[in-house]
Amino acid sequence: RKEVEQDPGPFNVPEGATVAFNCTYSNSASQSFFWYRQDCRKEPKLLMSVYSSGNEDGRFTAQLNRASQYISLLIRDSKLSDSATYLCVVREGGNNRKLIWGLGTSLAVNP
Amino acid sequence: NAGVTQTPKFQVLKTGQSMTLQCAQDMNHEYMSWYRQDPGMGLRLIHYSVGAGITDQGEVPNGYNVSRSTTEDFPLRLLSAAPSQTSVYFCASGKTSYGYTFGSGTRLTVV
């Protein structure tokens, strides 16, 4: 089993739609969780951290479920500019600050 | 505040040549790392550093060297380029508990 797994997609949605991505992780001792966004041929950019209580940033909501070892990202009212690959990232605990990266979920928002 | 600066943006090498990819950050981040990104493989950690004078290997370190003489700079050296090292290379930096900032990447082709 991969350490961090994501559905590669692509997810094709119309503008204004709500779309959700899930990501599962295998290490129950993982400490920190992030969603990154990567546009084609660009560097990954931090979208949001994921907190235990869940957190929201505008149209984006991230949730963590430690019991089932998954995190989710919900995008409401999708915009054309949301088209990108969304990367799930997990940081291991302890002194090991290693980040484990998912392969990403591709989103295409269509007019 | 320039963030993370990577140079060069593009490079073509012949097999057996050596070169250094430069990475500098002006955010006083303790943690810096080098990744390579290949289609279908996701981001793979090459080397990382948790502070000046401290470096360690990631998951794909063979063929690469790093040094961290200052907090700001973290160069990556390709010792003897091979076609298998054709990839996009990203440098990233960050604080311990937060997400990382990436440079804009170096597209390397080894012929």
Got a strand count of chain A?
Answer: 11
| Largest sheet geometry of chain A | 6 strands, mixed
Which structural category fits the helices and strands of chain B? mainly beta
Give the overall form of chain B.
Answer: globular
Mean of residue pLDDT values of chain B: 94
**Parts with pLDDT < 50 across at least 5 consecutive residues of chain B:** none
Mean pLDDT of chain A, to the nearest integer, reads 92
C-alpha end-to-end distance of chain B: 36 Å
Radius of gyration from the alpha-carbon trace of chain B, in angstroms:
13 Å
Write the layout of secondary structure elements.
The complex is a heterodimer of chains A (111) and B (111).
Chain A lengths: L3 E3 L4 E4 L4 E7 L6 E7 L5 E7 L4 E3 L2 E6 L4 E6 L8 E8 L7 E3 L3 E6 L1
Parallel strand pairs in A: 2-11
Antiparallel strand pairs in A: 1-3, 3-8, 4-5, 4-9, 6-7, 7-8, 9-10, 9-11
Chain B lengths: L3 E4 L2 E4 L5 E7 L5 E8 L3 E10 L2 E4 L6 E3 L9 E3 L8 E8 L6 E2 L3 E5 L1
Parallel strand pairs in B: 2-11
Antiparallel strand pairs in B: 1-3, 3-8, 4-5, 4-9, 5-6, 7-8, 9-10, 9-11
Give structural notes.
The complex is a heterodimer of chains A (111) and B (111). In chain A, 0% of the residues lie in helices and 54% in strands. Chain A has 111 residues and is mainly β. In chain A, the strands form 2 sheets. In chain A, strands 2, 4, 5, 9, 10 and 11 form a 6-stranded mixed sheet that branches. A 5-stranded antiparallel sheet of chain A has the order 1-3-8-7-6, with no helix packed on it. The N and C termini of chain A lie far apart (37 Å). The model of chain A has no long low-confidence stretch (mean pLDDT 92). Chain B is mainly beta and 111 residues long. Chain B has no helices and 11 strands. Chain B has strands spanning 4-7, 10-13, 19-25, 31-38, 42-51, 54-57, 64-66, 76-78, 87-94, 101-102, 106-110. In chain B, the strands form 2 sheets. In chain B, strands 2, 4, 5, 6, 9, 10 and 11 form a 7-stranded mixed sheet that branches. In chain B, strands 1-3-8-7 form a 4-stranded antiparallel sheet, with no helix packed on it. In chain B, strand 9 (87-94) and strand 10 (101-102) form a beta hairpin. The mean pLDDT of chain B is 94. The interface between A and B is medium-sized, with 18 and 20 residues.
